[in-house]
Write a structure and sequence with these properties.
The chain contains 19 helices and 34 strands. It is an alpha+beta fold and about 700 residues long.
Length: about 700
């Protein structure tokens, strides 16, 4: 196995160092970085390009998307959204992180969070209230707050023929290819005997989509049509039967600028056309929340995409499996490349991403904070920390609501919600308001970014974001309750663990959450000390005390159970996430005993209903197996043939059996998170640590992947 790390290249090329041997160490480091960038061993363009998705027919599971993390356009096999009705599995939408819509009720009412009736829990002498149950007489409020605000489809951009819709039967000889290295989507087909070539591309620096059509059909009736739906919380983010509730107004002629109004929400589109040759038509469309739209021609759009995507692929982690002899190596490499593309398009924006990214609406277009690290935690490990950092500012923007969320039940600090929209307010839910495992995420993500920063930038980074660490840790300590008998801090009900199958009134000390509380507070202590200020001494002591005295992980019959009150973990609750395994792989936990964890995994393998698992379970379980030294089984699990572990032609971790999740990005992100550990190491174990030592994986070449630091 070949690992091209900084050390190995430095040692193998002494002749390249002699010119700077008398300089200061910092200068040597800079010299080396320059040398490293021009001495990349893997031909990245060839590696990436061999996994370009190629379609020759309609594939409703795998429409292809171009985008930039905050804006995305999903196309059918024409390169447009022509065959809209054929893609009901994975809708054809134009989506953004800023395009949100709030629909009033039929009576014109906009409800507020305080209008929902709360569920009361009286446990151990303390009263808690959460928006959990849909109370009789309060159903309209409850569901309205779940549905609003929602992302909405900004536009359908389709080809038409002499004013009528084009049908699938009209199109033959299809070949479509997404050039991953440039972000350019090329579509070829015949339409009524005419050859048509379409190029579709999105800028990486603005929310602009560009199209180029080359065809003699342009003079025979082929044209482009924009249509605009009303907003909807449903999967397709579109309501096509509410024409009276939205409007489109032209406010400028050349370029054409349209103002779109949906109730109280407004956005703008600038459309620029060009016909450089008789059978060539170029179109760009810029989308924005405000009426300050850049006007780019098609050449500028495609050049921006080519340059930006090439930089993405050349500056970050990479793994080449082409020399491996295991027949599964090509498929694993394909998943790695396509997952990086999809996550850069859908999960690298200014907001935490929703589970279906910018493809369509899932859970009404809202994002789930417990999934944020699974989408985007891999970015720092693969040399792209800035793409995770883009969304961290959102946490700062919702600080008042995070404080209020904690204070509403008498807790100190900031409590992060689960299911939310940009304002950071919890949506009513039988699960969302009671989930807790998202609390340490922000600490973990910030520390991953910190570890990826150059040394000279770390002090400033710590000072900027320490408030998020501090107030999150304060909540975690206040949420944990001291058991006066045992002297241990417990995670008490009401709560719902990561395995969302348990009653909140009885869920006590879930195994994964106990481990994660320890780990999160340990990182908080580290950050507190990095601040080098006596002002935080009391906080640090409190975090350290709770961290060191968390309750023991629940063990029943020699196995880790879902939580302390769950003796039937492996008989009645053997479905959904086997979360008791995650506290030893995804994070380290000194309190977990390897022999018990190993036996627990074996029991899960024997009895668990794998059809009910989710895509990210496979990656997190593989991480546990790596720490247990069971690497043969780790790779088998990572590539297991299972309903929720399938990766379709687009690279999407398709969740078979879930029509509401046509794209499932936490699976793609957790795959890359696990592979960083397997390809670069973890803690003090560096190098390729997660692959079988059977000679079939010896050809792996690795560049630029940071070991999991813990």
């Amino acid at each position: 196995m070949k690992i091209y790390s900084s050390l190995s290249i430095f040692q193998n090329c002494p002749q390249q160092i002699t010119a700077s041997k008398n300089t200061l160490p910092y200068d040597i480091h800079n010299f080396f970085l320059i040398f490293y960038r021009v001495s990349i061993m893997i031909n990245r363009k060839n590696l990436v390009s061999r996994h370009n998705p190629v379609l020759s027919d309609i594939d409703a599971e795998s429409p292809l998307t171009v985008g930039n993390g905050d804006f995305a356009f999903t196309a059918d096999i024409t390169g447009f959204q022509t065959l809209y009705d054929e893609y009901d599995v994975a809708p054809l939408c134009t989506m953004s992180n800023w395009g949100w819509h709030t629909a009033p009720t039929e009576d014109g009412i906009f409800f507020k969070p305080e209008d929902v009736e709360l569920t009361r829990y009286d446990i151990d002498g303390r009263v808690y209230e959460y928006a959990v149950e849909e109370k009789r007489g309060n159903e309209d409020v409850y569901n309205w707050l779940r549905h609003n605000p929602h992302r909405h489809n900004l536009a359908r951009i389709a080809l038409v023929w002499n004013g009528r819709e084009i049908l699938p039967s009209d199109i033959i000889e299809i070949k479509q290819e997404l050039e991953l290295y440039t972000g350019v989507l090329r579509s070829e087909f015949k339409l009524f005997g005419f050859k048509v070539n379409v190029t579709t591309v999105c800028t990486q620096s603005s929310d602009i989509i560009g199209f180029c059509i080359e065809s003699p059909a342009l003079s025979e009736g082929l044209a482009v049509e924009f249509t605009f739906p009303y907003g909807s919380h449903k999967k397709n983010a579109s309501a096509w039967d509410n024409a009276q509730r939205h409007s489109t107004d032209a406010i400028n002629g050349q370029p054409l600028i349209l103002k779109r109004t949906l109730d109280n929400d407004v956005y703008y589109i600038a459309i620029n056309e060009n016909k450089p040759e008789p059978h060539v038509y170029e179109l760009t469309a810029a989308f924005a929340k405000e009426c300050y739209l850049p006007v780019w021609d098609f050449n500028k759009v495609i050049n921006d995409s080519r340059t930006s995507w090439a930089a993405f692929w050349e500056n970050g982690g990479m793994a080449d499996f082409s020399s491996c002899t295991d027949e599964r190596a090509y498929e694993l490499e394909r998943r790695i490349i396509l997952s990086q593309y999809l996550l850069n398009v859908h999960s690298a924006g200014k907001l935490p991403p929703q589970e279906t990214g910018l493809l369509c609406n899932s859970w009404y277009g809202k994002f789930h904070l417990e999934m944020h690290i699974l989408h985007s935690g891999w970015f720092p490990l693969w040399g792209r920390a800035e793409r995770l950092e883009r969304s961290i500012a959102w946490y700062e923007s919702v600080l008042p609501n995070a404080f209020e969320n904690a204070a509403s039940n008498g807790f100190k600090g900031m409590r992060w919600v689960k299911m939310t929209a940009p304002e950071g307010i919890n949506s009513p839910s039988r699960i969302a308001t009671l989930l807790i495992w998202q609390q340490p995420h922000i600490i973990y993500m910030l520390d991953l970014i910190l570890q990826a920063k150059p040394p000279e930038e770390r002090a400033g980074f710590v000072k900027r974001y320490f408030k998020l660490i501090r107030h999150t840790a304060d909540f975690m300590c206040d949420f944990a309750r001291l058991n006066e008998v045992t002297g241990k801090y417990e995670l008490p009900p009401p709560l719902i663990p990561a395995q969302e199958e348990h009653k909140p009134e009885t869920a006590l000390n879930p195994a994964f959450e106990l481990s994660y509380w320890r780990f999160g507070l340990k990182l908080a202590v580290k950050w507190g000390r990095l601040m080098e200020s006596d002002a935080f001494n009391d906080s640090i002591k409190n975090w350290e005390n709770v961290c060191n005295n968390m309750a023991d992980l629940p063990v029943q019959d020699g196995l880790y159970s879902a939580h302390q009150n769950c003796p039937d973990t492996f008989t009645h609750y053997n479905r959904d996430h086997p979360s008791m395994l995650f506290g030893y792989g995804f994070i380290p936990c000194d309190a977990a005993k390897p022999d018990i964890m190993s036996k627990t995994y074996d029991r899960v393998l024997e009895c668990w209903d794998f059809k009910t698992m989710w895509g990210w379970d496979f990656a997190l379980m593989a991480m546990t197996l790596v720490r247990l030294g069971r690497t043969d089984e780790a790779i088998n699990l990572l590539l297991m043939d299972a309903d929720k572990n399938s990766y379709v032609k687009s690279g999407n971790n398709f969740q078979r059996g879930r029509s509401d999740l046509p794209l499932y990005l936490p699976g793609n992100g957790s795959l890359l998170f696990a592979l960083a550990m397997m390809l670069a190491g973890y803690g003090e174990k560096h190098g390729i640590t997660g692959f079988p030592q059977n000679g079939m994986w010896d050809g792996i070449e690795v560049e630029g992947i940071m070991p999991l630091p813990y």
